[in-house]
């Protein structure tokens, strides 16, 4: 059994002080019913909104680190009792925070307080939820979190013993979602051989966070081994500023930074071979996290978008990624690492020998390649998953390009000025639906159009768009990667697209089950050969597109982080316009290029130089 936790002898670190200020900033924004969001007003508590429980956990952790300020325990108890009065069950994120708070309060030897009584009452009333979570329409990270809640945290929180048979079931379920590289895929829940697997990086890190928490509380080596394998797979693919959420859902968010900082602290404490890299990555990511733009109230924006336009901020992130929720959650995870791993000195001025930035890496499971050259670092999406319905999963494309401290090409946009969703619509709901149907018929499903991802060539053939598939071949050196892609046919406009808008307006996918193959037919007549190479301050893309191209139109966008972040030249295509986009790294510029070939093979070259 893990030893009791003690307050930090030298007081909280600078990072802990910073997140304490974030928690203090959100405190006045709470009401009896929920939290007030900038630009949105009151966000009412729901069953799975987890601001209150994570706020409680964060306040308790600050108290443990400081050893003073008992009013923090009172604030934590007040907020948790307000949540309790709403009668919601403790499950998923809420159960995680409540059970952790109970375990920490019991092991820390805090004298009996109102908070302990509230936590004890909630834990005593909790019931297992993993059976229902199995059929819940959420990612595998949520299902595994509930297994951890039921089989590890709740027994520890209530003083009961963990069942070996249940732990065996937990590990068997977890290992179903493990890839050959050591990552854990978030969807689908029930994957047959060849099924399309989704690996949003923020949730790959959440799996590892849960494993590290379980090991810290139980000292069970099975958790430690799986965590170590996952971190060894993740570290080579981190950006040089410590970021591991530059791709997929919740990209570049404070939530993801909090999880990653926790995992870096855990890995530094557990694995001597990884310590140097983990310490340096944690230092760099801490600086990024602390520089996150603030809301007017003083807590953190969801991501790196720092503009004052609230609508544009909303376009840059997932709809569930609320600033209040992600601020409090990230603060709790950072503080939890401070308490659990306080003996691991992450703030020493002593130099560490780190290999950051000196190596390239490839994950075939994730479909990501990392190329390094001197001060330049380039992340490439080699794979493509059009069927997910989110342009952040399309490829092949550039995910991130940085030269020194300057970001030249940032995250794939969540929204683009070409998307129907960012255009003004009528206040009348019936007329608004008619507008969407008309737009889908004429222009297609913009949010599924890979042209506005950037660096992806598409072939427009009437109502269809042909897009690259997952690579059939991939070859790599330290500074270049070559891939070969087929093309798949997607109907984005016309009657079919309009009917889909009418009957499936959200284009929702069942996250539990997905088809065993791509839902879009492959057109074997077309092929894309791509070579990407990174240099000291630039990168080049050389594409050769073959097939029956005569009479069709080729389009491609080139993306840069801001107007002045990069210089772009394209040989072999004609520039036709410029679009504005919004990503988790902030506003982006999309330059549109096109060609109407008179032959069946087209080659072009893209050169992007960091300014």
Number of helices: 16
What can be said about the biggest beta sheet? 12 strands, antiparallel
Radius of gyration: 24 Å
Helix content: 25-40%
What percentage of amino acids are in beta strands? 15-25%
Q: What is the average of the pLDDT values?
A: 89
Instruction: State the shape.
Output: globular
Structural class: alpha+beta
Explain how this protein is built.
The protein is an alpha+beta fold and 611 residues long. Helices cover 36% and strands 21% of the residues. It is built from 16 helices and 19 strands. The strands form three sheets. Strands 8, 9, 10, 11, 12, 13, 14, 15, 16, 17, 18 and 19 form a twelve-stranded antiparallel beta sheet that branches. The protein has a five-stranded antiparallel beta sheet with strand order 3-4-5-6-7, with no helix packed on it. A two-stranded antiparallel sheet has the order 1-2. A hairpin with a 2-residue loop joins strand 17 and strand 18 (586-595). Helix 3 runs parallel beside helix 5 and helix 9 packs across helix 11 (254-270). Residues 505-517 have low confidence and may be disordered.
Strand and helix map with partners:
Layout: H1 14-26, E1 34-37, E2 41-44, H2 51-66, H3 71-84, H4 92-107, H5 114-125, H6 130-134, H7 140-157, H8 164-176, H9 201-218, H10 221-234, H11 254-270, H12 275-290, H13 310-315, H14 323-340, E3 361-363, E4 368-373, E5 376-381, E6 397-403, E7 406-409, E8 415-416, H15 429-443, E9 458-461, E10 464-468, E11 473-476, E12 480-491, H16 495-503, E13 522-534, E14 538-546, E15 553-560, E16 566-571, E17 574-583, E18 586-595, E19 601-610
Antiparallel strand pairs: 1-2, 3-4, 4-5, 5-6, 6-7, 8-17, 9-10, 9-15, 10-12, 11-12, 12-13, 13-14, 14-19, 15-18, 16-19, 17-18
Helix pairs in contact: 1-2, 1-14, 2-3, 2-4, 2-14, 3-5, 4-5, 4-7, 7-8, 7-9, 9-10, 9-11, 10-11, 11-12, 11-14, 15-16
């Amino acid at each position: 059994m893990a030893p009791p936790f003690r307050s930090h002898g030298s007081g909280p670190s600078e990072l802990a002080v910073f997140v304490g200020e974030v928690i203090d900033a959100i405190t006045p924004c709470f009401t009896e019913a929920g939290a007030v969001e900038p630009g949105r007003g009151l966000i009412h508590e729901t069953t799975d909104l987890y601001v209150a429980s994570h706020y409680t956990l964060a306040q308790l952790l600050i108290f443990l680190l400081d050893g003073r300020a008992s009013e923090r325990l009172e604030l934590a108890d007040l907020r948790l009792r307000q949540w309790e009065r709403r009668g919601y069950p403790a499950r998923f994120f809420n159960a995680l925070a409540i059970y952790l708070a109970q375990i920490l309060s019991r092991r820390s030897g805090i004298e009996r307080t109102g908070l302990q009584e509230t936590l004890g009452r909630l834990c005593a009333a909790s019931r297992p939820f993993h059976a229902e979570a199995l059929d819940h329409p959420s990612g595998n990270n949520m299902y595994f979190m509930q297994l951890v809640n039921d089989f590890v945290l709740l027994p520890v929180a209530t003083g009961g013993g963990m069942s070996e048979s249940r732990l065996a079931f937990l590990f068997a379920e977890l290992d179903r979602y493990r890839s050959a590289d050591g990552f854990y895929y978030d969807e689908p829940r029930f994957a047959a051989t060849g099924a399309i697997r989704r690996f949003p990086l923020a949730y790959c890190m959440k799996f590892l966070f849960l494993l590290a928490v379980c090991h810290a509380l139980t000292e069970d080596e099975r958790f430690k081994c799986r965590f170590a394998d996952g971190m060894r797979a993740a570290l080579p693919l981190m950006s040089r500023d410590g970021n591991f959420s530059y791709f997929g859902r919740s990209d570049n968010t404070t939530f993801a930074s909090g999880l990653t900082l926790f995992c870096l602290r855990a890995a530094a404490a557990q694995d001597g071979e990884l310590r140097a890299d983990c310490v340096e990555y944690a230092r760099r990511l801490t600086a990024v996290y602390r520089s996150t733009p603030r809301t007017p109230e003083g807590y953190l924006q969801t991501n790196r978008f720092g503009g004052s336009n609230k609508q544009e901020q909303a376009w840059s992130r997932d709809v569930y990624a609320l600033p209040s929720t992600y601020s409090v959650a990230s603060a709790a995870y950072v503080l939890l690492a401070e308490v659990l791993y306080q003996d691991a000195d992450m703030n020493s001025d002593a130099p560490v020998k780190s290999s950051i930035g000196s190596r390239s890496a490839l994950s075939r499971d994730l479909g990501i390649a990392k190329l390094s050259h001197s001060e330049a670092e380039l992340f490439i999406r080699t794979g493509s998953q059009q069927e997910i319905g989110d342009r952040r999963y399309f490829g092949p494309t550039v995910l991130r390009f940085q030269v020194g401290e300057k970001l030249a090409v940032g995250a794939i946009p969540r929204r683009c000025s070409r998307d129907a969703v960012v255009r003004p619509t009528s206040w009348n709901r019936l007329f608004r639906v008619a507008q969407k149907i008309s737009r889908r018929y004429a222009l297609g499903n913009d949010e599924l159009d890979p042209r506005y991802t950037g660096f992806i060539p598409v072939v427009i053939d009437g109502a269809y768009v042909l897009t690259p598939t997952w690579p059939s071949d991939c070859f790599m050196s330290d500074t270049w990667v070559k891939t070969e892609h087929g093309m798949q046919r997607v109907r984005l406009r016309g009657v079919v697209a309009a009917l889909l808008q009418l009957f499936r307006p959200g284009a929702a996918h069942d996250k539990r089950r997905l088809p065993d193959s791509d839902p879009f037919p492959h057109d074997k007549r077309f092929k894309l050969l791509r070579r990407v190479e990174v240099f000291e301050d630039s990168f080049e893309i050389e594409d050769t597109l073959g097939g029956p191209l005569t009479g069709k139109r080729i389009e491609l966008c080139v993306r840069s982080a801001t107007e002045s972040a990069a210089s772009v030249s394209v040989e072999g295509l004609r520039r036709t316009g410029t679009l504005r986009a919004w990503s988790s790294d902030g506003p982006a510029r999309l330059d549109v290029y096109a060609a109407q070939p008179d032959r069946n093979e087209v080659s072009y070259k893209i050169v992007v130089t960091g300014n």
